[in-house]
Amino acid sequence: MNIRKSLLILVIPILLMALSSLGGLAYLAEAHPYGPGHPLYVTQETAQQWEMLLASDPAYRAACALEIAECRLTDLAYASTPAEIDQMLIGLDQALQQANECLAAAPESARATMQTRLAQLCQQAELVLASLSPAGANSTTQQLLANLEQRLADLQPAPGVLFPATATKDTAAALLGIEIPVAFLQADVDHGQFPMGGSHNTDCLACHTSGEYAGQATDCLACHRLPAGTPYPDHFAGDCLDCHNLDTWAPTQFAHEGVTECLSCHKAATPARHYPTLSECRVCHTSLVTWTEVSFGHVGLSECRSCHAADSPAGHYPGPCVNCHTDANDWAIYQYDHARSRATCDQCHGDVTPAGHYGGDCARCHQDVGNWANVRFDHTGYRDCTTCHAAPAGHYLAAPCTNCHSTAGWPPVTFDHSGLAADGYSNCATCHATA
Length: 435
Description:
Structural class: mainly alpha
Largest sheet: none
Order of helices and strands: HHHHHHHHHH
Mean pLDDT: 73
Strand content: under 5%
Distance between the termini: 144 Å
């Protein structure tokens, strides 16, 4: 029992894979979705051949062979590279031979209709071959074309049986009544108002992908649309040719007069630290010749750093710019209300403090905010004078300054001469020069 279960576990996936493969081959044989150059094209050809070979009814086998030949003709019309063209020429030649052989084995009752279908197929093949250019082909391609043309000549009915002997390619195509995609007859077809120079000088099938040649759209937006993920999808609404030409989509010339929308072209050129605004660019950039000429109305604005942060000196006062720079036309003209400031003096004036300067709060001496040279210092309680005041040469050094000087003024001086001998001053001439 366990062996049977194990076998079922192994066989069922294999059967499912086989059924899936058969279903895929059947789809390829019926739908024929892939063209030359596709990785599954060879598998598709094989599926069509097996469908024909496995058919037990000769009439159905002949119908399959005709369908294969029609598919090979369509593939030849779509072939674009020399290798694909050679491959399809061989495939069509073999398919026509195979169809003719199967047709001969078909019942008499079905043969007449199929012969008409084969004749139509040969007429269609002549149209496709006429669109190719054997003059520029290599010797291999020319030989394949010659072989196929001979095959078509052998299979064609007598003149006048199906088509008038004087039928042209256009009238023959109309008589066929079967629309199949065919290659262009010439490379220099007149495209009217749609010039084929520059970037438009491309392969025909790049535009004519569905086998339809007449009535194609000629406006730029039919092919060129902004990707869905572009940062600025509101592209300038003018005519494409106002900016773009056939050589490059990068605009080379543009008449800016009257245009008020800039970001669709110039968003990528906006500096990373640009002033954040919802206003139109032309509010500041008024020149149509250069964007570096900027005229900006600063009146009413109180935020400056978004544009001028890079211009601030190192160690600059960190408060709002408008506290000092009140002139919107010239930033060099500034004034500062020191009386209302909460900043310390060192934040702005630390680099101008003299060496050895008194280390206390600046405002204790510099109370005149209009002139820092006007200094007033309350000496009350300060007994160490030499921190700020150096003694003159030969000055008496034994006693503290306050023994002689008062905080009311350095002169006059009151000096107690008693006890000088103990300090080493026994001779009056040490301090007082003789008359």
